[in-house]
Design a protein that fits this description.
The chain is mainly α. About 70% of the residues lie in helices and about 0% in strands. The protein has eleven helices and no strands. The chain is elongated, with a radius of gyration of 19 Å.
């Protein structure tokens, strides 16, 4: 994820005064609630304006279109996920992995419509949604890689401009393969949460350990962390 993408996710696109920024943030917060478990197509602009108790023109003023409003909501929601993924640098690697995956599952559980949009592409093929999705993946992969093999081996700080060039092809492909399986499993889980979140988290952690052991077998210069070697992790 490059610096420009990170800025787009981390903060809204400013326009106007502090008061207008506060109003914009308020509309985004309202939108997050409206779209929390409702799909994009299920709400018209009239529905949104009525439920938000605002004039439809106000939404057009700040976001230009329904799509623009929805993308702003998704970007704001994704900022939470990225913050959780990249947070906890002071924690031991094993604890940080548990925290990252737990935060990921909590986000998906409480922002189901936004999560589905990010993972599946949302409104048809949307290049902006695709960029958001790829940015989230890069941050999570870099975070996991840094915790496993160190920043020096992984191109610097997680979420830095190094992006996919910062991680060698083998560990990056292994972590991406694991992450794709996480996305598919999480989509199924939020649709039918047959497993408690704690069980789901531990399952994903163990799957990650298997991916790291596979990397070590193919390239011993990327040893699996000690926690990934234990049968109970």
């Amino acid at each position: 994820m490059n610096n420009s993408q990170q800025r787009d996710v981390d903060r809204p696109r400013a326009r106007g005064t502090d008061r207008s920024l506060a109003r914009r943030a308020e509309l985004i917060a309202i939108g997050r609630k409206l779209f929390a478990d409702t799909s994009y197509d299920a709400l018209s602009m009239d529905d949104i304006a009525r439920q938000a108790h605002v004039a439809k023109g106000l939404i057009y003023y700040y976001f230009k279109s329904k799509r623009g409003y929805y993308l702003a909501i998704v970007q704001d929601s994704v900022a939470d996920l990225i913050s959780r993924a990249a947070d906890g640098l002071e924690l031991p690697p094993e604890e940080r992995v548990h925290r990252t995956i737990d935060g990921y599952l909590r986000y998906a559980e409480h922002n189901q419509a936004a999560y589905r949009t990010i993972i599946t592409g949302g409104v048809g093929f949307d290049t902006e949604v695709q960029a958001i999705r790829e940015g989230v993946r890069e941050v999570i992969v870099e975070t996991i890689a840094e915790g496993a093999w160190g920043a020096r081996r992984c191109g610097g700080e997680a979420g830095s401009a190094g992006g996919r060039r910062g991680i060698a092809p083998l560990p990056r492909m292994a972590l991406l393969g694991w992450l794709y399986s996480v996305e598919g499993a999480t989509l199924d889980w939020i649709g039918d949460p047959a497993l408690p979140r704690d069980t789901m988290r531990e399952l994903l952690v163990k799957m990650l350990g298997g991916a790291m052991r596979a990397v070590e077998e193919l390239d011993p210069s990327y040893p699996a962390p000690e926690a990934a070697r234990r049968e109970d992790v």
